Amino acid sequence: DLTRAPCSLCRYQSEDDISNLDEMPLMMSEEAFENEESDYHTLPRARVGHRRRGLGWFLCGGWKVLCGSCCDCLLRTCRRRKELKARTVWLGCPEKCEEKYPKNGIKNQKYNILTFVPGVLYQQFKFFLNLYFLVVACSQFVPSLKIGYLYTYWAPLGFVLAVTMVREAVDEVRRHRRDKEMNSQLYSKLTVRGDSLTDYSPRWQPRGQPVIPHGYCLMSDGIFLNLLVNSEHAGSDTCACFIRTDQLDGETDWKLKVAVACTQRLPAVGDLFSITAYVYAQQPELDIHSFEGNFTREDCDPPVHESLSIENTLWASTVVASGTVIGVVIYTGKETRSVLNTSQSKNKVGLLDLELNRLTKALFLAQVVLSVVMVALQGFVGPWFRNLFRFVVLFSYIIPISLRVNLDMGKSAYGWIIMKDENIPGTVVRTSTIPEELGRLVYLLTDKTGTLTQNEMVFKRLHLGTVSYGTDTMDEVQSHIVQSHAQPCSVASSGTGASATPSHTATPSAPKVRKSVVSRVHEAVKAIALCHNVTPVYETRTGMAEAEGTEADQDFGDHNRTYQASSPDEVALVRWTESVGLTLVNRDLTSLQLKTPVGQILTFTILQIFPFTSESKRMGIIVKEEATGEITFYMKGADVAMASIVQYNDWLEEECGNMAREGLRTLVVAKKSLSEEQYQDFESRYNQARLSLYDRALKVAAVVESLEREMELLCLTGVEDQLQTDVRPTLELLRNAGIKIWMLTGDKLETATCIAKSSRLVARSQDIHVFRPQVSNRVEAHLELNAFRRKHDCALVISGDSLEVCLRYYEHELVELACQCPAVVCCRCSPTQKAQIVRLLQQHTANRTCAIGDGGNDVSMIQAADCGIGIEGKEGRQASLAADFSITQFKHIGRLLMVHGRNSYKRSAALGQFVMHRGMIISAMQAVFSSIFYFASVPLYQGFLMVGYATIYTMFPVFSLVLDQDVKPEMALLYPELYKDLTKGRSLSFKTFFIWALISVYQGGILMYGALVLFDQEFVHVVAISFTALVLTELLMVALTVRTWHWLMVMAEFLSLGCYLASLAFLNEYFDLSFIATGAFLWKVCVITLVSCLPLYIIKYLKRKFSPPSYSKLSS
Predict the structure, then answer these.
(1) pLDDT tens track for 72-84
(2) Is the pTM of this model over 0.90?
């Protein structure tokens, strides 16, 4: 793990030197740090200054910021969190635990029974559109302001709220069912009698002793006390187990956890209740890689005190990978590490909704201006203020209330279409309010483990310097191993005393044999089979693992053997050695055993193990073969660490580069033979260094390095982390669409870099700038940023610790530089850091972000992004349940964005503008009517005509626009560059809005003036002519807007026209039926409709001919 402690340079720096860094330009060279310190104060500050807050700021939106701050402060006061405290948890003594702790159940619901209605109403009326219509509807209760019937205002508003509440209720019920499914999982709890009692995880409280079997997910944080079944470590003094943490930190490595030493020595599990002991645990914290606590047993003399660290903990959202563990719960519910690192879910609002909200404000402003003009033309006579409000209500159809319900119903239709798409099976739309966001994305932040990769390591290459073996030649390696073990075995099987003589006499010729390919392959495979931390596990007949002799031969051949390790790379290597004939069959803390192809068991004593660290980048092991007494030091590690350790060679660097370009993770394997005297000398120096009180780590490292000299290079291995299906073409598709891809992972830097190369996230021609992992202060961050700024078209790789330091001092500069990169890889990221990166992109770029992941550690990132996508995979359903969209494979994201994202955005943009056009055209007719008739605030159409116009007469054709598409799905996937236009927001902008407004004014004026000019006798004829022409104009405008016809669109057109014609027989209250039946009515309606629509059709034809859009060029 990378240290977070500040280096000595920063430790002894004065405050003046630190403050000077604020004044430095970011491009200052390293020499400037030494030679130009006096110039710092004369340089401009590289910081974004705070904007002055005055009256202009207050009027231009500052009031909203202040109101929001006050509301947030009030909410924080009302919902003040309980202070997190350290706690003392007694074993088996619930009466001593008086403190109340959070419930342990999972809860993803936004509301409860009491807050549902107020919460939904608040979410609706915080939008200007709905709040405006609420005020207008309430104004109709005032007699002097009443314009028409109450139902013409309250019915649409009530319908919109009802549809919204039903949709939210359905979503809440689904969340409740998912939570109930997770909380209904049964676990066992240890009782005083020593047996187990079945219980639900939500009932867990600190002090309980849950029993977690192999393969189960932990639901709370606890301390590891003992193993109920300890077959894997039979005969060893250490009680340990492996856990999988991929849902917590994204790492697929299995972590070794050790039980508390005091409790693992108890004779029986039931004795946990007979002792007087307690656990002192620190207050709950965010850091998942550290823990401080103590275990105290008081019934001993003297009392036993044992310190607890991270290796004794079992965090929630991790999975027990071996054995059945018994622990004591210390943190539950909101206090667990996984929940503390998970941000609260928020109500996401799409960018299109925000744009429409701005347009409705512009419409309201136009409505008020129009009303003021009407009152001014009246001369402000009489109760002009009342007339002003009446005009505002009269022109309220400028802002159509059906806009909200049409868009909401359209969103539901898009979700249904997405889930029914056979090309992306298993896709689920969990949030039905933001499907348009899929078409506006600029940044895609993806997890690595389980998202881009399959969590499966496969051995691909073995290189010995002069010969290389790939997947198609592994049978040659197997034959060499069989050959190397068959010859000694046949000699030994003679059973005579003379059989040993040839083997001894053959030793002088050993150097010649060692140079053969068979011998070199055998040595390399043997080194790979021995140099690791892998433990074989037998799920059944585990007791037979202790057998010896001939019985061991049978038991170790068990077909359901599995391997446990802290690294998936090591498991892949050991599986490969098994496939070529050398099998790891048993291992404990002091020895390991290999089985040869002929069934012989080779036993090795483990003398020393030097584990892998991120600083050393290598691991080593010293073993002694019992049959021969040979002592060998094996080591494997990264090429950068091993190049200076192995003997001189001319092929290692070149072959490492070749494998890296193929996306393989390379390991260099070497060995060194030690005599008994050499090892004894090393052991004495090593033990002496380990007992040192000062600089222990440095002295131990120095002793180990004394062995790491002139080691014999055996081989170079290449392991591939298998990618998900079609990851490379999908990433290429997204890049061509203009989407910038960032990979955020909790894995190691080397692993993340390899996957970035193999997945083509970083192109072969691109350079990679690796940010120094040990950046710990401002000076180092400054130097690294300067070095990075000098590079162009370069991918960035940065660790979580370095990122945290840079964001602390140079947030704006780092984000600005990173956004210019073609790709960014952040490794060793905590869940909180992933969400922080998402929020930084949202704040600094104002672009839409999408986060995709499959583990519990991705939930915060998914919920923070504008659009969250979860993959339901091997890491569980936690990310899938918390996401807005759930898919089954990463490759589905291409079609989800290119096809469904495009269609959803284009359709909603067309639908929203057309609904506004439908309201503006009738308001324009009302304005013409009022201006001609002495500016009277009298409605042109009343009662059912207004309700019918917005519903049965035009609703079906207008809503059928949700089936329109400008580009076929195959074309959208073939030319992803079309997606770039969507991110510019040109389909719905003030420009397109003004075009529709001009069309509405033109058509409204033509319809009203035409009806007034052509009518003969009675005013009722004006109403009949203008309203019929209005309905026909809307139907023709839908046909003008449609780009790809669907049979449902045609049906909707004829259905609406039929409904209107059929309703004429019942509209005698509004129309003169005898006049409608005449030919004069028909030709007048046709002429007015033709004049209002024909010019628009001509303009559309000319525009398509001389200035066609890009998608129409491709379609043709």
Answers:
(1) 565 555 555 567 7
(2) no
